[in-house]
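Many introductory courses stop at the sequence. We go one step further.
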Amino acid sequence: MRKYSKIYKIKPREKRGRFWVLSFFAGIFAIQIGCSLCCSSEPIQFETVFSDLMSQLSYLVLPLVPLHLAIYLLHFRKANYDLKTFNKFFARINMKTKAGVSVLVMSIFLLIVLDDESKLENGKLLDLVIQSIAAAAAVMLFDCLKIQRNTVEDEEVVARAKHHVAPGLAMAYFRYIENVVKGAYEEDGTEISKPHEEALHEYIKENEIGSARDWVSKKIFILFPESDQIRGTVQEIAKREKEDGENHCLTLDPITHKYFSSGQPRTSVLNVIKIKDNERKILYSCSEGCFRNPLVKSKSIDCDQIQMRNRESLLGVTLSGLCEKIHERKEWQNNYVIFAENRPLNTLYQMVDSPESQISFTRKDFEVQFKLYYAELKRLIEEDDVCKNKVELFLYHDYEHKKSGNFSKNLKNKILEMKMRDQRDS
């Protein structure tokens, strides 16, 4: 099975390397100037340093004129010599940047071809033509080999585009989640569907899961598995219950909400995952008649297994018939997570799996749209005062090459994070 790289979680490039590249070239230029001054037999003076600096700078900027001319001629040829099409090639470049470069190139051109008396030198002009021909050949070679193409910049273009699928999917799914969280009402105020908080209280009461041993998430989970094949559907989660290392299960009774879409009544289903915390062994001193109680399942531990001072009192039984031994019991908590199936994500997977004759949507396109869809949905939820406290986006790695039990492990870590967050807020 083909493996794919992880989906990018940061914005590409963001011009972070510009400072370091310019610093590298400035350092090389400074070293060159310093070496030329140190190796010179003439005494170091300000005029000498300034003249050497200007001389070296002139050598650096000389290739700018033929390169500029070659790039413009090549793109003019690509546009079939049509000026309107030609201008579209440089539409993304800032107008001030284009004007500044043009003025700079013109100034350098005059410095190259004019002599000290501001007269045109044929020899310098011929050299410039030869350099321009060489630059044009180099630019054409780069263009044919596609060396100038940058995948990261292509992704930036896609991310900035106005017409792509991710924002539409995010907006449609957000409207659905908004109906679930806030409830649905008629124009006259008649309730069609209860808000999620009320529906959750009823679900807890009907299923009797409100004890201290039960923890129920107040937020609706939306699963975002970063994966090569796993999509996080209800069918996949149910199928993975039987895999080694997984200890979650889907409950039989989901939470249902009614709402209207395009004037038609719909029913949404929020599935519930039950998962136990990792068991912990607790030692405690017993003060009850547990040796006569068949319901006690914890095993007693003899005193020679424990280093304690008062051994006699631990091993004995009091005159009242109560046990005073050290016992071991297992403690855990049943966690209930409510999640909404991420159907727009399944749509993106279906677009990848569809034949190229129907739609051209590669894995790379999927990774870009996945990132955009997640970011847009997160933005919509965080900007809503109600939904931001009722919805939790769960982004996690779930690649098939990882060991079994990966989903339950990720879910336990997320639950632990939410419990710690609740403790801090309370």
